[in-house]
Each structure stands twice: as structure tokens, then as C-alpha cells.
Amino acid sequence: MYQQVARVRHDGGMSRQPKYRQVADALRREIDNGTHPPGARLPSESELSERFEASRNTVRSGLGLLVSQGLVTSSQGLGYEVAKHEVFELNASRFENLNFEQNGDAYSTDVTNAGRRPHQTFRVEILPAPAAVAERLKAEPESRTVLRFCHRFVDDTPWSTQATYYPSWLIDEAPRLAEPGDIEEGTTRYLADRGIEQVGYFDEISTRMPTPDEARLLEVGAGVPVLLWMRTGYSAERPIRCTITTLRGDLNRMNYEIGDQSARGEGAPR
Amino acid sequence: MYQQVARVRHDGGMSRQPKYRQVADALRREIDNGTHPPGARLPSESELSERFEASRNTVRSGLGLLVSQGLVTSSQGLGYEVAKHEVFELNASRFENLNFEQNGDAYSTDVTNAGRRPHQTFRVEILPAPAAVAERLKAEPESRTVLRFCHRFVDDTPWSTQATYYPSWLIDEAPRLAEPGDIEEGTTRYLADRGIEQVGYFDEISTRMPTPDEARLLEVGAGVPVLLWMRTGYSAERPIRCTITTLRGDLNRMNYEIGDQSARGEGAPR
DNA sequence: TAGTGGTCTAGACCACCTC
DNA sequence: AGGTGGTCTAGACCACTAC
């Protein structure tokens, strides 16, 4: 029953990949060279098991590698499918994007222009500042902040979440921030009208695998990292907001235009 | 021998996590709350197997989840260890960083200031432009480009790779770009001295799991994504370079300073 | 040499989807 | 009903590390 006793090396001592890696590498090559185009179904585990003369579990290990690299997805009862990605560009340096609500609009417009259907849910909360936010807002840890939270979809696919925190002192000057409804004219304009103008921002970008919570909200499978984008906005005197955007790494790309872009032209990199 | 027959649900029909997820969740909680601090060894597979009344393979599946989320690492003969990360900040918007070679110096300086030992290997190649690069340099696909490639380490830990492509027309005006040695004064100054001034750049940032090649160069285990940073630099007339930086996602964070930063102060977010 | 993780197998049963 | 992936087990042997 246990065949390990009979296992031998046929490679004359050459260092060799374990079998599950061979399976993964072979399938990866076939995906790269178009044998299995994006969206195609892969052969079933039992077929692959025969083809590679490996147990089903070994084949599963190999497939698991590909899944964890975001190359294929799997679903029960259906099989394995080659992942296909349509990346959305997100311009992070245009002045318009200083405006959170308008940013949302820009997002809706972009998505609609791409022939897709945008959708978002929105809520407002008052809660103690998370440590990272308090630090950036130069506020006391645990001090009260208003959170305006946005969960964005494209064609019912979760795309990103955006959490903007405002310090409590700002609420006194701009009370509508703490009210649940949309702010028609956009929060930035609303703030500007009250004499609070955002003159600059500081962006921080990092990546990691999603936490279980994020995986749930963004419905990302194993093997898809998230892009974390943290923007702290400043008036001339002090920080006025901190926006944390969590983007599905497989669906988003950010860009910044710095300096003179006149030579970039229109047919610029999509 | 096979106990599945005897397996029953004790949850009265409530939806329940599979056992390997319970293992992962329990360990994740213990890591989060400090029971297993960064750098600590986790109990061995057999100990966990007893504790959770699960087979070794099931425990392995759970640990595999944590590894694939970058929370723990494993090594043969040693055991599982809680990952500890020290993130390096990378300022992508300061003018100095327009200068590739000087960027390298800035990196060396930063690393040295942090009490770590920087190290890099460097090579120059002439090769056809990859499609993405040709597009950004507005050059014919497959047209000749000079690649200046840099592999960076901190304390012998691979940190990032940086590949800068220059279009062939530039080589005629700045032949030293194609020579293997360092350019003492920095490539940007060298180019500026020859009348080619970089007046702006376009940055694109994305994330994904590393390819096998990248995993090898950066020595990242499963569960660590890479940050991809593509910078296209322009003179007033046309693109002059395209730099692709691949950063270990667990060790790097990028930032951009846009607009007036006077309110950010010095004790700014680390 | 003992203990750790790494690979692999054979087989059982479950949950989901399609027909 | 039949096929697909998902979970789980028990056990074998290998490779690496520490002592």
C-alpha cells in the first residue's frame, strides 16, 4: 500500500524538484504559453493525477501553489480556472483626487466609461482612532474620530474599501462630516467653504496578504495580495484627514504624475 | 483506520469552519495577542496535532495558511517561527530620487544610517525591449535597449531589484550608459551634462505574488507579495528611461509627498 | 541520534454543481 | 446520478538541524 519503499531517484543524483512542484511548473508553462488561456478550465484533479502519475493529493499540492500565486482559481463542483485580470488604473496625483467624494465620483465615472457598472455602500461611524490613524492625525491615541467608510464594487465584484478618518476638532467646524448622508458638493469643497483647505498630502503605499476580514470584504481568494494606500491630508496648519484605501491587488494599479508630463502624450501606457 | 465514518457534527447544524481553519485561526489569535511574539518558535506539528486532536496533515494545512499569509515562516529541521518585519520607507517623490544612481546612494545611506549593511550587485546588458518597456519608451517592440540592473541587499537579505532601460537613441548621445562600470557622477547628471534633462516622471505601482524567478532573486517565501514600481522618466521631448523596481512587500513601504507638507512636521509617521 | 518539517500515497467521506 | 473540488486520516520515508 505504501509505495515509498519503492521510490527511487531516476535523476542520477541531480537535484530535482519535488513532484508537486513539477506539476505546478508544467501547468504554469502551459498557462504562460497559451495552452490554457485566461478563463479556461484546467483538467480535473483526477486527469492530472493520471497524467503526472501522482496521487490526487500531490496534484492538489501543485495546484495549490498556482492558486496561492493567484494564477488560477478553484471552486467546488466546478473545477480550476485560469484567472483573468482586468486592471483598473487609479491616478493618485491629480488634484481632483484630493477630493474624497469627488474621487468616488471619478471612480464611478471611470467605471461607467469602461462599460462596467459601479456600485458602492457607504456608512459613517464615530469611533476611537486606531493607533496608525491617531499618529498621522497628530491626535491622542483612542481620541474620537469620524469614520466615513465606503465599500466599492464593479459589476458586483468587490473592488476596494476606503476609510476616511477625520479628527474630532474638525467635526466642531464641519459637523456634517459626522452625519450619515452624502455630502453633495464633496467633502473637500464643504471643508474649503468652512475655511479648511487641503494644501498637500502624504501618501504611503504598501502591500501584504489580506487579513481574514479583508478577504471577506473583497472576496479575494488565496494568492491575491492587497494594495494598501494611506493618504494623510494637510491644511496649512495641521492634518485634517487620513484615508486608508484597501485595493484588490489583482484588479488595481496606481499611478503618479510628477513634474512635466508634456512628453508623455495621449497614447500613454494604459 | 478511516475514521470519517464516525465523524459527526457537534454543532447542531451551525455552519462550522473546517478543522484546519480552526487551527489557523487559533494560532493567529495567539500571535496577535502576543502569546507567540515575533521571532518566537511555534509548537511543533506533532504537539499541535495532539492539542487540536487533528492529524499531522490537518495541522500542516492550517500552518500552511499562516505561512501563505506571511505570518509565520518554516524551515526544515528548525520549526515554525513567527515572522518579524522591519519595514523600510522609500520616498518616491523627492527630486533626488529622479537620479537613479543617486537613488542607489540614498538607499545605501539610509541603510547605513539604520545601522545595517547595504550591498548591491550591478550589471549592464544590451537586449531587446520587453513589450511593457517598449510601450513606455515609445520605442519599437524588440528594439535595442540598454539595461542597467541592480540587485540590492541589506545585511545579506535580498531587498529589491531595479532594472533601468534606456532607449537605443540615447546611447548614441550618452555612450557611457552602455558601459559596464558605474557612472560616478550619477546617470542623471551625466545625461543632464549632455543636454538630456529629466523634467518629469510617471510612476505606476502594482502588487502581485512573485514569479518563481523573483522568488529566487528576492528569496521570499510563500505568502509574501512583491511591490512593482515602474517609473518612466521624460525629457521635455520624449521618454528617456524606464525603471522597474521589484520590492519585497514585507520589507518596503513607498511614500509620496504631494503639495504643501509644512504641516506634516518632523515627527511624521515613521 | 533524535526531533523537526517536507513529500507522497491510498483511501474515505462531504459539499457543491450540472445534467 | 455522476463528476468536481474540499477535508481529513494514517502512515511511510526523506532531508535538515541540533546535540
Order of helices and strands of chain A: HHHEEEHEHEEHHEHEEE
Determine the structural class of chain A based on helices, strands and strand pairing: alpha+beta
| Strand line-up in the sheet with most strands of chain A | 4-5-6-9-8-7
Biggest interface pair, counts: A-B, 59 and 57 residues
Characterise the protein shown here.
The structure is a homodimer of 270-residue chains. Chain A contains eight helices and ten strands. With 270 residues, the first copy, chain A, is of the alpha+beta class. Chain A has two domains: 64 residues, Arc Repressor Mutant, subunit A, CATH 1.10.10.10; 168 residues, Chorismate lyase-like (Chorismate lyase, 3-Layer(aba) Sandwich), CATH 3.40.1410. In chain A, the strands form three sheets. The first copy, chain A, has a six-stranded antiparallel sheet with strand order 4-5-6-9-8-7, sandwiched between helices. In chain A, strands 1-2 form a two-stranded antiparallel ribbon. In chain A, a hairpin with a 2-residue loop joins strand 5 and strand 6. In chain A, helix 1 crosses helix 3 and helix 2 crosses helix 3. The longest helix of chain A is centred in the N-terminal third of the chain and has 14 residues. The termini of chain A are far apart. The N terminus of chain A is likely disordered. Strand 7 of chain A pairs antiparallel with strand 10 of chain B, so a sheet runs across the interface. Chain A binds a DNA duplex (19 and 19 nucleotides) through helix 3.
